[in-house]
Amino acid sequence: MRLFFAIAGQSIIVMVVLSSTLIAAGATSPATQPSPTEPAASARRAALIERRNALRDALNAAEAELKETTEGSATQPGTPSQIQGTLLTPTTRASDTYSTTEVAASPVTPVPAASDTEWFNVHAQATSITQWHNDFPASYTGPNSLLPEESAKTSVTATLFMGLRMPWEGGAFYFDPEIGGGEGFSNVQGIASFPNGDISHVGAPQPEPYVARAYLQQVFGLGGDQEKVESDQNQLAGYQDVKRITVWLGKFAATDFFDNNTYSHDPRTQFMNESLMDDTAWDYPADTRGYTIGGAIELNEPSWAIRYGVFQEPHTANGGTLDPHVLKALGQAVEFENRWNFQDQPGVVRLMAYANVAHMGNYRQALASPGPNGIPDITLSRTYSCKYGFSISAEQAITSDLGIWGRAGWNNGQTETWAFTEVDDMESLGISLKGTRWSRPDDVFGLAAAIAGLSDAHKDYLAAGGLGFIIGDGKLSYAPEEVLETYYDCKIADGVFITPDFQFVEHPAYNSARGPVEILGLRVHLER
What phi-psi label fits residue 519: left (phi over 0), alpha (psi between -120 and 50 degrees) or beta? Predict the structure, then answer.
């Protein structure tokens, strides 16, 4: 926030009061105050509270005096106010990390107070996605094909997001119980870029409860400017240093911290297709519901960040349990993020490299040693082996309402798909537009396209009749899988959104002998 002083003499007086008070207070936040169980600590805390109140009184008196002396004059922009070297700036949701470099205009810089810090919070979401597809032409249908004719399918998920601040500085614990149920098209098979990204959290038609996340977060402030953190899902309100190191340990999704994108990363509120919500070439470590156990660490600076994570791999392909051989089966990722402002609009680019070691089969070995019926079986060639790859994600706000974004990803494509979906290379590009121009500022229109491909070894395996856990038509007339999606997210009331969605899929499962597929969807999303 910005503090403007219209009269230079009064500015100096107020700044002297502010500086002397904060220097005496030592800029101690509620999270870092000593335990009140000791008499000396209690006395010091009382003194700090008294000084903080004095600071607020000084600010209020200065504002009142300035209002009297400057009444009728226009306030001119100035330099963001700094108190004891701390620039207190607001930020948006955790996903909008570039916003930490922005300073919003305001007449007064807030002073951190006990009321600004959440010690616990509870948020919730519930999402239902129903989809229908046309009766499309298909020259043949295999074991893992999308069925040419089938009824509508619906998935439902609901989540509680609970956060608790730890009694030590910078610590927080997050716990997210979740319930998921429903069905996807053809038992969630037949399209590599699956049209319902939320279906990954569903394990059975009947709703089942499970723990989605349970992890500890530790923030180590490095001093300097601070930013305000708003209350949100898995995010406690308070203040934190812009320059910081953050550590996460426990159960979560690898995509909670990697491959982020402001405009397309959440199928519950944004694009629903998997190749639009994530880099589908990154076979990120996860159980069948999309979660894993691991750790991640991030260094954040005002205009850039770098993060590293290590995660458990599933015991089998798309399995519900994680491999206990943690020294053999691990996924690792490192990502660099650079943030900027172009014509006063934020932009971000993220570069990621990853390597997954798991008990995976090899396509060439499966082709060289087919099963008893002469059809290659990837499961017969399984051994601990490595899949590696790279990705890039970029976004740029054109205006406060319009943004453009894109991703590109590649992996070496020699080993079987293990945890996510059967894509070896992909590119996506899209736009998102808020409805401000038609007096619907909370509505969002999205339009995006993606193209996905396979490695030569993967193509040959499927052409020979091999199956993966997502696709396998028994034959293959190869062509890239192409996706177009558009949606309109309409806010009906506070926390209530309804989204009609349309997707067009050319060459489902990379097969030019099948499709195209037209998909209509309707999403209902509740949140608080």
Answer: beta
pLDDT of residue 45: 61
Q: Give the Å distances, CA to CA, from 34 to 9, 37, 52, 167, 410.
A: 38, 9, 16, 10, 50
**Given 3-state DSSP classes, what are the helix, strand and coil percentages for the chain, each rounded to the nearest 5?**
20, 40, 40
Q: Which of 90-94, 329-333, 417-421 has the lowest mean pLDDT?
A: 90-94
Can you spell out the DSSP letters for 170-192?
Answer: TEEEEEEEEEEEE--GGGT-S-S
Distance CA 188, CA 200 (A): 9
Residue 112 has pLDDT above 60, yes or no: no
Fold of 120-168+183-210+255-292+300-527: Porin (2.40.160)
Q: Which residue has the tokens 């609901």?
A: 158
Q: List, for residues 289-314, the tens digit of each pLDDT value.
A: 999 999 999 999 999 999 999 999 99
Residue at 34: amino acid letter? P
Coil, helix or strand at residue 50: helix
Provide DSSP, 99-112. Answer: GGG-----SSPPPP
CA angle, residues 170, 176, 178, in degrees to nearest 5: 170
- What pLDDT score was predicted for residue 116? 80
**Domain assignments of the chain as residue spans, ordered by start:** 8-87, 120-168+183-210+255-292+300-527
- The pLDDT assigned to 50 comes to 67
Give yes or no for a cis peptide into 90 (omega within 30° of 0): no
One DSSP character per residue, 297-357 reads EEEE-SSEEEEEEEEEPBSSTT-SSB-S-TTTSEEEEEEEEEEEEETTEEEEEEEEEEEEE
Binned at pLDDT 50, 70 and 90, residue 85 comes out as very low
DSSP H helices, 126-206, are none
pLDDT at 203: 84
Q: What is the pLDDT of residues 173-204, one digit of tens each?
A: 999 999 999 999 999 999 999 999 999 899 88
**Side-chain-side CA neighbours of residue 330 (13 Å):** 11
Euclidean distance between CA atoms 132 and 152, whole angstroms: 5
Q: Give the strands of the sheet with 88-90, arranged side by side.
A: 88-90, 226-229, 238-241
172: region left, alpha or beta (phi > 0 left; psi from -120 to 50 alpha): beta
Report the distance separating Cα 225 and Cα 244, nearest Å: 10
Residue range 373-425, pLDDT digits in tens: 899 999 999 999 999 999 999 999 999 999 999 999 999 999 999 999 999 99
Locate 344 and state its tokens: 């006063």
Q: Please state, in angstroms and rounded to a whole number, the distance separating the CA atoms of residues 10 and 4.
A: 11
- CA-CA distance, 148 to 139, in Å (whole number)? 10
Closest to 101 measured CA to CA, from 335, 308, 397: 397
